[in-house]
Amino acid sequence: MEKIFIFGHKNPDTDSICSSLIREILDKKNGYTNTEARRLGKVNKETQYVLDYLQIEAPELLEKVEEGQKVILVDHNEFTQSVEGIEKAEILSVVDHHRIANFQTSSPLYYTAKPYGCTATILYEEFKQFGHEIDKKEAVLMISAIISDTLLLKSPTTTKKDEQALKELSEIAKIDVNTYGIEMLKAGTDLSEFSEEELINLDAKKFEKDNIKYKIAQVNTVSIDDVLKNQVKLEEEINKKIKEEGLDLFVFVITDILNNNSEILVLGNRSDIISKQVELKNNRAFLEGVVSRKKQIVPFVEKGIQ
Ligand code: MG
Ligand code: MG
Ligand code: MG
Q1: pLDDT at position 262
Q2: Cα gap 12→185, rounded to integer Å
């Protein structure tokens, strides 16, 4: 039978991996046996913590898709963040919690967009709508995605739906969400073995507005200074990336997950988009209370573009 691939965005995060796995399980429960989760990049350390906890394997890597390949997108829709060849794939369905941009299809599709804090929260509702029981493994996958995307419900992207889902799922999984969540998030902040080049690529997303191409990369940490200790080398790598990909702007966001603030490092010939809104010193600015790329940084950048 023809395979249908399910995947989240490039530089996959915990929601992208867990929601792909959850969607595959949901499809199987609904009688669709030919859908399979895939990933568009390396599993990060936070997600690896989840997979190890559950003793399960990551989905297989998908490098590109052929023309006409049937696919299901979770946790993203923008083609700039999707698999190589996506323009010619047949998108059957999207389940996402981001803005809709740089996206079009030639055929009708199922598209579920809800402004929740996490894709897994949408899938959790779908499990309930279909009347499926949720087992411990499924619950832990959803819990992990929700904790990751909402930073343990502290991100401004968090909704009542995420809170409610997390509460109900923690009862099924019988785990202490705070203890598990802190351990999981901390696993993701171990950046010690990454080069500067890797740091700026771990969780980078590309955007385009009014012909301005920009990239926002984000890392979670418990020490902002630690990540920026080699700023010169970081800037070198960012400038290289700007050249390679023809970017106008690169914003590197270093998020302190304990205090819920971020420092940004901004480069590119259109860094005025940022500097006209916030003073940059040494290409940097501290953003109090800012943790969310989609709800805080992207709108901030786009306001500067207008
Ligand atoms: Mg994501
Ligand atoms: Mg997400
Ligand atoms: Mg994220």
Answers
A1: 98
A2: 15
Tokens of 7: 């995947």
CATH number, span 196-305: 3.10.310.20
* Residues of the chain where predicted confidence (pLDDT) is lower than 70: none
Tell me the CA–centroid distance for residue 292 and ligand 3, in Å.
Answer: 8
At 173 the pLDDT is 98
**Angle of the 136-150 helix axis to the 177-188 helix axis, nearest 10:** 60
Residue 233 CA, ligand 3 centroid: distance in Å: 24
Task: Compute, in angstroms, the gap from residue 11 CA to the centroid of ligand 1.
Answer: 9
Long-range pairs, 136-140, Cβ under 8 A, ≥24:
136/172, 136/173, 136/174, 137/54, 137/56, 138/22, 138/25, 139/169, 139/170, 139/172, 139/173, 140/50, 140/53, 140/54, 140/173, 140/175
Query: 117: CA distance to ligand 2 center in Å?
Result: 7
Q: Please give the span between the terminal C-alpha atoms of the chain, in angstroms, as a whole number.
A: 48
Phi and psi at residue 224, to the nearest 5°: -60, -45
Cα–Cα distance, 271 to 238 (Å, whole number):
13
Centroid of ligand 3 to alpha carbon of 294 (angstroms): 8
**Domain range list for the chain:** 4-187, 196-305
Phi and psi at 206, nearest 5°, equal: -100, 140
Ligand 3 centroid, distance to 147 Cα (angstroms)? 10
Task: Using alpha carbons, select from 81, 239, 257 the residue that is nearest to residue 181.
Answer: 257
Identify the pLDDT of residue 1. 83
Q: Does this model's pTM top 0.70?
A: yes
Look at domain 4-187 and name its CATH class.
alpha beta
Task: Please tell me the total number of residues recorded for the chain in this structure.
Answer: 306
Cα 116 off chain centre by:
13
